[in-house]
Amino acid sequence: MRLPRLRLDLTVNILTSHAVNNNRITVFGGEQLRPNLHVEDMTDLYLMLLDAPDEVVDRKVWNAGYQNLKVREIADMVRDKVGPEVEIAVTPTDDHRSYHVSSEKIRRDLGFVPRHTVEDAIEGLRDAFVGGLVGDPMSDDRYYNIKRMQALRLQ
Questions:
Q1: What's the mean pLDDT in 96-125?
Q2: Nearest Cα to Cα of residue 82 among 52, 28, 29, 126
Q3: What pLDDT does 81 receive?
Q4: Among 1, 103, 116, 119, which residue is least crowded by beta carbons within 10 Å?
C-alpha cells in the first residue's frame, strides 16, 4: 500500500515566528493563496489512512488543504493573535506561485474534515514561542531547510 503524499506549507509557522520574535512580518506579494491544514489534523488523517482498508487508499490521491487563504490574510490573522504592535511590511515579489486546492474529494471519499483552524495553529505556535518551547527559532538551522542541508553537507 502506498500512502498519499501531502505538500506542507509553512506560511503560518514562519509568519507567526517572525511576529513573536521580531514584532515584524514581511509579506512578499501577499495575494498568493495557500491551503492550510493544522498538524493535529494531518496526524489524524495519517492515522485514518493507516487504519483504512488497502482498497480504499491504495494508489489514491487526495488534497487535504482546507482554509485556502491569501498570504496577506494569514499575516493579518497572525497580528490579530500575537498583538497589534506587530508590523506587517508588504513588499513586491516576482514569485506569484499560488496554491488553491479543493479537499472535497477527501471529504467525500474518506469523510475527513479537519477539526482545527488556522487561528488554532497561530495560537498554539504563539504560546510555544512565548513559552520558550522552541529553542532559538530565528537562528537555529533546524528551522531552515537550506541552512540545515548545508550544515549536514547535503547536496
A1: 94
A2: 126
A3: 98
A4: 1
Q: For residue 8, what are the CA distances in angstroms to 58, 98, 139? A: 21, 14, 21
> Which phi and psi angles does 24 have, rounded to 5°?
-150, 135
CA 40 to chain centre: 11
Q: What is the pLDDT of residue 8?
A: 59
Q: Give the separation between CA 5 and CA 36, rounded to whole angstroms.
A: 15
Residue 135 DSSP symbol: S
Compute CA distances 113 → 42, 44, 74, 119, whole Å.
Answer: 10, 10, 21, 16
Residue 62 cell numbers, joined: 487526495
Q: How many CB atoms lie within 10 A of CB 141?
A: 14
The grid coordinates listed for 10 are 509553512
Give the single-character DSSP code of 136: S
More confident residue, 151 or 86: 86
Give the separation between CA 12 and CA 17, rounded to whole angstroms: 8
Backbone angles phi, psi at 103, to 5 degrees: -105, 20
- Tell me the pLDDT tens digit for each residue of 58-72: 999 999 988 999 999
